[in-house]
């Protein structure tokens, strides 16, 4: 039986996914998925294999800002234009 984090890592090895995608596939709330992805990121880095968690950072759909401080998080609004139309970050393990 695989743990939730192992299942997330396996899914991210197959194809890129957002926290919403992972949450829907695993029946988990999105904030819980972000916690798991953060731990998966650390374990992939510590694993010694030639893998890493890559993140396509969140981006504002209105002004294009993508310089958010924490890419493994879903910001609520853009610091530049204050828009709440933020595209979720996407994750993949390569």
TrEMBL record:
Pfam entry (one): PF0610-like_N
InterPro entries assigned to the protein according to its UniProt record, in alphabetical order: PF0610-like (IPR038767), PF0610-like_wHTH_N (IPR049159), PF0610-like_Zn_ribbon_C (IPR057022), WH-like_DNA-bd_sf (IPR036388), WH_DNA-bd_sf (IPR036390)
Domain called PF0610-like rubredoxin-like zinc beta-ribbon C-terminal: residue spans: 57-93
Ranges where the PF0610-like winged HTH N-terminal domain occurs: 3-48
Superkingdom, taxonomy of origin: Archaea
Gene3D superfamilies membership: Winged helix-like DNA-binding domain superfamily/Winged helix DNA-binding domain
Name the record gives this protein: Transcriptional regulator
């Amino acid at each position: 039986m695989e743990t939730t984090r192992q299942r997330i890592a396996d899914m991210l090895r197959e194809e890129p996914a957002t926290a919403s995608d992972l949450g829907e596939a695993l029946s988990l709330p999105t904030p819980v998925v972000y916690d798991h992805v953060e731990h998966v990121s650390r374990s992939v880095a510590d694993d010694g294999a030639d893998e890493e968690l890559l993140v396509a950072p969140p981006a504002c759909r209105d002004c294009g800002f993508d310089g958010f401080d924490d890419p493994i998080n879903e910001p609520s609004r853009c610091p530049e234009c204050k828009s709440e139309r933020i595209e979720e970050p996407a994750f993949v393990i390569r």
